[in-house]
């Protein structure tokens, strides 16, 4: 169905740098479809491009993923399975719906049998270890992995609220949980938007820095080879899988005494797909960006970081603008320029054009360098960084 048009080039997978595993990297522009839907109608051009990029992703997965990534998915899948059923049958029996909450606000957790409670703890441990392994595999995506987890959680809360007052949703509908539903929906869309913007804008910066060339065609090829259309398609598929899994799990427990085992199996199946999809969503951006020299953040987050870096320049020791020798001028932690008192035997200082804090003598606005003897304005001895 697919073919490669050029010889692949050797590269290194950043997720396996520590293992020193070399792989064959395939550029996106080296792949062609044997059959194009555009032969039937030009409107299918985007569909062909999406098919091409998803195939590209699958090819890279086969080339880069190893046993470690499979183990990570297995641990996440085990966490889903352990939370989907109980060995003592407590979940399938429905439990006591009158006992809810966690002490001291409720006695629901204490009403769980010892076996089910052990499963709960074991599932929580698997989730924590799964997240730890994600951070180990994809260090650039630590912050974004948290966004995906909160997005998944928001989708789950949305499904729970949809079943509030309507256990058979979507066959019935209730407005009891409409506020929580809308809030969770907005939160999910917001987190997905922020996650996508962060990856796209970081990709753009990476291409600008690494593939600068006078020939715009070279830059265009580099931008195309770093295309995220297929990745965005995976993000939509992952979101749908999370929704179906959460809906099936909620639907199973909302019906009393319990729902059909089909919903339980659906929850596990799509839950495992969601775990694998999360790994893919975190892996691909880091693969495109290569080494860990660039952080995956949105443009606004970078501006805030730049402001923090600017503020970290303080305090600053002044230097002569002519010979670069240390002078009596400095800048404090608040960004204010200060100068040491020139009066003999006085150890005081103060802001330029004010009085010394010890001898109350007026401080000069110009400084004579003790090394080269050049007289220059005191502010010239400091950098031009602004303290706003």
How many domains? The number is 2
Radius of gyration: 30 Å
Average pLDDT metric: 76
Q: Uncertain runs with pLDDT below 50, 5 residues or more? A: 1-24
Short note summarizing the structure:
By secondary structure, the chain is of the alpha+beta class. The chain is 51% helix and 10% strand.
List keywords for this structure.
two-stranded antiparallel sheet; alpha+beta; 4-stranded antiparallel beta sheet; 388 residues; 10% strand; disordered N terminus; extended
Give a description of the structure.
- The chain is an alpha+beta fold.
- It folds into 2 domains: 9-303, no CATH class; 315-381, no CATH class.
- Helix content is 51%, strand content 10%.
- It has 10 helices and 10 strands.
- The chain has helices at 45-64, 67-82, 90-93, 114-137, 142-162, 178-210, 216-225, 229-254, 261-289, 299-311; strands spanning 2-4, 9-12, 22-25, 31-33, 316-319, 326-331, 337-340, 349-351, 366-368, 375-377.
- A 4-stranded antiparallel beta sheet has the order 5-6-7-8, with no helix packed on it.
- A hairpin with a 5-residue loop joins strand 6 (326-331) and strand 7.
- Helix 1 (45-64) packs across helix 8 (229-254) and helix 5 (142-162) packs parallel to helix 8 (229-254).
- The chain is extended, with a radius of gyration of 30 Å.
- Residues 1-24 have low confidence and may be disordered.
